[in-house]
Specification:
100 residues; mainly alpha; flat
């Protein structure tokens, strides 16, 4: 049973790491394109990389506090963009409601 959980956790962690690495690659490509003056942008995948990493850690049969894995939300740049946009959308919604 522990072997099965370890394999499932490893698959989720590898999938999450590949998405996180791709998100960092997209950041670098966007920076290079901006320096070259190209109007081309590569989009990131929000939430999936961090969620896969967290699910993988929860499946792993390890004797650690699993809630420390929530720190992995800060590793993925696609997820950070979502967290940075939440206050903007909240302020915009509040201003829109006050204008009515």
């Amino acid at each position: 049973m522990k072997t099965t959980l370890f394999i499932i956790g490893a698959v989720f962690i590898i999938s999450g790491l590949s998405i996180v690495i791709c998100n960092y690659a997209y950041l670098i490509l966007n920076w290079i394109n901006r320096r070259k003056g190209l109007d081309k942008s590569n989009s990131q995948i929000p939430l999936f990389g961090a969620v896969f990493l967290i699910v993988g850690v929860f499946f792993m049969p390890l004797n650690i506090n699993k809630y420390y894995s929530l720190i992995l939300l800060l590793v993925d740049p696609g997820t950070l963009i979502v967290f940075w946009c939440i206050p903007y959308f909240l302020i915009k919604a509040i201003k829109k409601n006050q204008a009515l």
